[in-house]
Amino acid sequence: MSSSARFGFVLSLALSAGVWAAESPWIHRIEPLGAQRGTQVEVRITGTNLVAPDSVWFDTPGIRWVTTSNVTGEEIAGKIEIAPDAALGPHLFHLKTREGRTNTRLFNVMQYPGVAEVEPNDPPGKAQRISLRPQVIQGYLKGKADRDAFEFEAKAGDRWTFDLRSIEYGSHLECDLALETAAGERVAFNDDRDDYLETPFLEHTFRQAGTYRLVLDQYRGPQRVDCSENCGYLLQISQLPVVSAIDPLGAEAGSSATIRIVGKGLDRVQKVELTPVRLGEYYRLTFPFTLPLRAVPDAVATPVSAAVATKRPDQLTARFTVPVEPAGLWRVWLHAAHGTVEAGSFEVGQTPEQDEDAAKRKAWSGGPAVVNGRLGQPGEEDRFWIEAEAGHPIHIYTLAVQMGLPLIDTVLELFDADGKLVAES
Hints:
This protein is mainly β. It is 1% helix and 48% strand.
């Protein structure tokens, strides 16, 4: 499998944030963390000083607060309605009260029916029985000792994915996910899906039919994390394709582009689309590195369709015209018979771009530029010539893992004309 690196220049932006006073209304959590679009769901918002809420604000008209059933200083209960066409993924919300506006939390729109976790379901006791079908288990690990187990019947040869969503979706929960036989034999395990994302993901093809268990156990560690405040999760069970890389990671606005997607089960993809990244998807900037950021309200944008050119189980290519606006990050979506999967981020840029082969043939001599490159072999290095002037600073950076490529950690080295290393990062 190959990975891609995107090179360019950066404008640094410093943002300042106000500090909440101790008496300000504050949301600790919402339960559940999300629900299926086209449905209504009962929710509980827990926090402090939540008296006399005037309204609940969402970042989209596709989600609205319908009714309120209970209000205390520590909890607000009510019902949320999600439109059938609401955008999948995280959305921002906050409360407006007579004491002021609360902090912002996330509520997530899911594509599959929700199934509520029911206690007691702690192993080694009785696990909660579920059917193996596309669904989202809406759960919560309460306190330091809580574990959750779910039991189901699987058929030989069936391939399923178990995608636990918490940290990037508004929760503080860090946990692991194990797949066991009825006898307790572990057949699959994951705690961090890659070197950078700390939520577990399992893809498994069952060799034998039988009874199996999914077991969720929270990370405790030296910090003794207490899951009494905000440790909800959404466990999506599906047969969706799995994406491991896309290439290139961006293109110049208005140009024609061909995107290559690498993964598993891609021959099942029926349609490829791009949509602008929403503010809710910026909520947790996991990586402390430069990232194209569009800090403007969500716009109603028509998805950009990409024509599927070739596809096979491990690779797909699609062609499209890069939108002119809005500039910045877009999200790539794959639509298959069993549902929709996020394929990663794609940057729509306004800077001249070229691929790595063209960039290697001619030295850079000034002006903003972006190189779409790829490191596809072990030990591979990409080398580019630049013409620099004494006293004029040059800012060069790479984007890779920040765009959703978890298997590449780039190193930049600058050599002079004699081959002497003068800078590295």
